[in-house]
Amino acid sequence: MNKGVCAPKGFKAAGVYCGIRKNKTKKDLGLIYSERMCSAACVYTQNKVQCAPIAVTRENVADGRARALICNSGIANACAAGGLDAARGMCLYVAEALGISAADVVVASTGVIGPSIPMEAVRKGIPVLVEKLSAEGGEDFSSAIMTTDTFAKQVSVSFEAGGVTCMMGGTAKGSGMIAPNMATMLAFITTDAALDPAVLQIALNAAVQSSFNMISVDGDTSTNDMLTVLANGAAGNKLIEDVSGADFRNFFNALGIVCAELSKMLAKDGEGATKLIEVRVSGAENIKSARILAKSVVDSNLVKAAMFGADANWGRVLCALGYSGAEFDPFGVSVSFKSAAGEIQVCEGGAGIAFDEDKAKKILLEDEVKILVSVGRGEGAAVAWGCDLTYDYVKINGDYRT
Amino acid sequence: MNKGVCAPKGFKAAGVYCGIRKNKTKKDLGLIYSERMCSAACVYTQNKVQCAPIAVTRENVADGRARALICNSGIANACAAGGLDAARGMCLYVAEALGISAADVVVASTGVIGPSIPMEAVRKGIPVLVEKLSAEGGEDFSSAIMTTDTFAKQVSVSFEAGGVTCMMGGTAKGSGMIAPNMATMLAFITTDAALDPAVLQIALNAAVQSSFNMISVDGDTSTNDMLTVLANGAAGNKLIEDVSGADFRNFFNALGIVCAELSKMLAKDGEGATKLIEVRVSGAENIKSARILAKSVVDSNLVKAAMFGADANWGRVLCALGYSGAEFDPFGVSVSFKSAAGEIQVCEGGAGIAFDEDKAKKILLEDEVKILVSVGRGEGAAVAWGCDLTYDYVKINGDYRT
Q1: What kind and span of H or E run contains A391?
Q2: Are B288 and B244 within one domain?
Q3: Does residue A330 belong to the interface with chain B, where contact is any CB pair within 8 Å?
Q4: Cβ of A341: how many Cβ atoms within 10 Å?
């Protein structure tokens, strides 16, 4: 079993049902705890409408330190009466039960926007949660933060720092990945490496650019999106104090892998999705253009619906490139589809080329499909991940609250 | 019967099946002809990838004059081999059959991106089309340009200019209205008023801002979107040469009505749509912010899916406002839902308020629903139109080409 956020030394986790949800069979409250103080770094939604837990977490990690993380599912605690008090209350209950400071607690929520969190249920649930804390609790935590996710998302990797083997673990929850205005995305990453908080924040900011941001998590985001990294130093490596040197590089590589793997899991588990779509753009003017182009294709409803239908409708790919806003030569575009069933080119020089429809169909029927786009001879390349647009997406979102 | 583009004096139209489509029961070629030379104004897609007909039309209306308009459905003539030759050929065949100059012909196409137009079928079809030209042909033309539209869209209004009663008629075809990356939108408007071409273009540019652009036709558009106005002066009014004075005001009001009516028809007939959604934003800093906010809500998949499910999930409205990029105070937002079944407020001061779910459901089950949003005390107001996200949208776009 993947230990997820409990893979690194000194971290415990747990998940319980405390009564926030109507459905008693689904956990709704999760806790991560570190035996020692952690360096903490966070990135948040850029949505102007932000949930109360983000406001409280901003206060609590302003000093770059945290020891515990509480997260509920079922209610987003956004646009809710008494939201700030509820978020602060959650931190306070955790602090009392663990004997730490409330200012060292990170708080996150996901679920329906509007309703208020039933604090009595949370107050009673937190001691139970603390009681259940264990180094085997990663899976329980992961399932406690799920909303419409169909599987718990966990990953862990090891890396070397100062001659010491360090571990990094992560978990995430999705997300109607179908469009930038997705449901809440939450991701929590733990490591037993020792890092300066400022260095940790720099690494996190850079890592999200090529991972979570390429599944539209930043800029166009829900009211609750949040990504937190906790580093407790239990591995005993020499403190990583700057971004030069092999130790930082190894840590940063590991962070990149964890972020990319979680991002792909989120995309693959997009609401109602039947397949993972990976869009690879090359030959763009620069990496910024490449990212805009790749995201425009992966966000296109018409492309997503065509992928659901295994329809090699490459014209919609060109259309999405065209309205992305990025500069490129329409007559320099080539497009191929690729999967476990093979690869087929369908467009060259911005125009269609004859191709075997049956072979294309076979390729697009796989559950992981790559759309390979070259827009010229530039150096810019980027990868974006998404999923197809299906009947189930409509069903799930047609009446999410009931 | 609404005479549409034939409502104004001196215009004839026709529509036939010529063999561009496989399905012989659906017309695929339409023609509008004016007995006298017209002032012509056009707006085009801002997509970087543009179809050949747009390139040719730009050349032909550069002098602000046109007498005929040819449009096919079934094939977009975009990213197609020999596209420019095909578009020029269509103009040439029309010119020969009508005895006019090919430089006075507007050409448009809509359909699948990639394939080339079967010119032999078009060459044979155009004389038949010219033979069928009649002042009763507006309906035939409207049906000939349809793709996934479920009904032909026509409108006509009258207005006064220089003591003369002038007519204006219009038709349009949609559009997967579900997202900015919609299918092709084409609109053609005729009037027997006499206007200077420059004045006509100014009026058109202004009119689209509060109509077609509010259903996401500009900026984020298909490769083929195009809107053309032809004014032939058959009404005998004094030439409208500038934008001051009552004559221009009356013309501009009529143009605004025609554009708004066609826009609403397009939204209501969005692919798979079961209802028209009208988003009214008020209290914004300025009209630009109001438009951004209204479009962000009407473009939100999560809002669209909620409307399909008649689910009063107002949190998704706030979410869409929040990521729109426009400035506003999240704590100054109020939201109400309104339809023939009544009106209900669900959000005030950026937070939820208690409301009767059954009443909300009844309101949202109507086939025309208004989402009323106030974001503060500013002067900026705007209206955007869209439709719900349904199973049928996915079905239609899952395998559009077959």
Answers
A1: helix A391-398
A2: no
A3: yes
A4: 16
Q: Which residues of B touch A308 (CB under 8 A)?
A: 394, 398
pLDDT over 50 at B346, yes or no? yes
User: Which residues touch B402 (CB under 8 Å, ≥6 apart)?
Assistant: A311
For chain A positions 119-178, those within 8 Å of chain B (CB to CB) are 176, 178
CB neighbours of B243 closer than 8 A, spacing ≥ 6? Answer: B199, B202, B203, B252
CA pair distance B269, B249, nearest whole angstrom: 30
How distant is the alpha carbon of residue B84 from its chain centre?
Answer: 24
> Cβ contacts of residue B124 below 8 Å, gap of 6+?
B18, B19
B contact test, residue of A277, A295, A394, A401 with most B CBs within 10 A: A394
Name the residue among A114, A306, A393 with its Cβ closest to that of B397. A306
Would the pTM of this model clear 0.80, i.e. be above it? Answer: no
Interval B278-294: pLDDT, tens: 999 999 999 999 999 99
Q: Looking at residues B347-370, what average pLDDT do you find?
A: 94
Same domain (yes/no): B257, B301: no
A386 within some domain: yes
> CA-CA distance, B384 to B260, in Å (whole number)?
10
CA distance B19 to chain A (A): 21
Residues A364 and A382 occupy one common structural domain = yes
> DSSP alpha helices (H): ranges in B99-244?
119-132, 138-144, 197-209
Q: Is the domain of B233 the same as that of B343? A: no
Residue B169 near residue B193, CB atoms below 8 Å: no
Domain, as residue range, for B352: 276-398
